[in-house]
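ligand=adenosine-5'-diphosphate
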Amino acid sequence: MRSTMQDFPLTIGGLMKHGTTVHADSEVVTATADGTRRETYAELGKRAAKLANGLRSLGIDSDQRVATFQWNNAEHLEAYLAIPSMGAVLHTLNIRLFPEQLVYIANHAEDQIVIVDDSLVGLLAPHLPEMKTVQHVIVAGPDAASADLDSLRESGKEVLLYDDLLADQPEEFEWPDVDERSAAAMCYTSGTTGNPKGVVYSHRSAWLHSQMVTTGNIGSISFHDRVLPIVPMFHANSWGLAYAALMSGASLCMPDRWLQAEPLCRFMNESKPTVSGAVPTVWNDVLGYLDKDPSKKPDSLRLILCGGSAVPVSLQKALEERHGLLVLQAWGMTETSPVASAGLPPVGADGDAQWTYRGSQGRVACGVEGRIVADDGSEQPWDGTAVGELEVRGPWVTGGYYNSDDPEVDQKFHDGWLRTGDVGSIDELGYIRLSDRAKDVIKSGGEWISSVDLENALMAHDDVVEAAVIGIPDEKWGERPLASVVVREGATLTAAELCEFLSKDFAKWQLPDSWAFIDQVPRTSVGKFDKKVIRKWYAEHEIDVEDAKS
Ligand code: ADP
């Protein structure tokens, strides 16, 4: 028997219409050099329509790709709404990628137009000539007219100003009926091996994912909230926060390019977000800043969503106990839209018991299924000890990559499940606990050593600011851990002291024998610790390595 329900499509156009009409009084606040600029959701809706008309006038009339090269700001949000809603495909370019990858991605996606922020013109211009399919560049932002437009024109592409393009356009657009399964947006993974791979989100996947982000197990977002996505809109769609805000009517606070702790805290105190999301390195910097001046604490913030890499319990505790800032760890990947699980502790897990769960990657969201699979392909029990690769599936999990020529791409999938490349266990209560990425695991004398556990333990030391652990080749044991540590300014620490500190939680054979004291752990393009660089430093003798016993 069929249901009597209407088959109503779940589209970005639908959530835009809802947000900009039902919640017309909500606002998007964007940080500027000396304050903020604001637009209501009603104005946002009109500007999205003007942008769609402008893009149509440039020939965008089906599922062509329109790229953005932008910070988190009002214009980027307008593009987020207009491009998918008009039936085209939003392609968010990561502004911090290496030039070769950036050019590869733009060509692979066949981007027709790039919308670039005025402050990023200098970064894009040198690579534009190689972006073969791009025909127009649209420069957005309050200082667009004074940007170096000639540097863009040298590429031979047509260069327009965003505000000029929008100026005479109607405030309404005939938004087409879009198939909910068609492409809405695309995002490339950073490609640690081979070329970056494109993940294409559908309207339906973006809709369902964003709605899940608003639920109580994740962000609990309503129109009483104000959402601050610090995680870039080019990093896995800003974890769905932008669309989640439109869906729930929550206002958005956009930090633009002011992402360091000091301007960020100033912006938070001015724009009053209640929920925010960023990778751990951002919150670690905020913590260091607030420790020096607790009066700068953003009082409005009730919840920090944190993920992208393991979120040390020590960081969560410090933010909560010293500054009253609550952190919820979430796990996901570009391939999973990205949010798939979060670490809200079980009922009754109070006091110290809660940290076991808040240090985990949490329970999967409804819609996502997760399982642990051993090397021999067998599914492992949820007992908290059986370890294997985490596999997931669900309506916002990708089933493939866009036009990939990577010969290894099929190995990323297994009977309709995505192989995440993350290694860990699931306990009796369904909490996922990741011990490593498959490519980072350290195998010493046939036994696994978890780099994540060592890093978390090291970062719990009062005088350690950052720590990253990699495996280095060892004749006898195959591999041994090397710990790279950033020591707090003014403090002194030795390898022997840190080994002593770790020995309360780790067996002797798990302790790193090799130590490097460095100024900062290198970061990836999305602000995560970049172990590839440390491996290269080690291989090319670019860091001083101490033996723990010496
Ligand atoms: P990249 O591969 O460039 O890091 P993604 O942002 O898609 O791109 O990264 C996804 C990966 O990030 C996951 O597979 C996992 O290894 C890691 N990750 C994300 N969230 C967490 C978390 N809470 N704990 C541990 N690892 C995480």
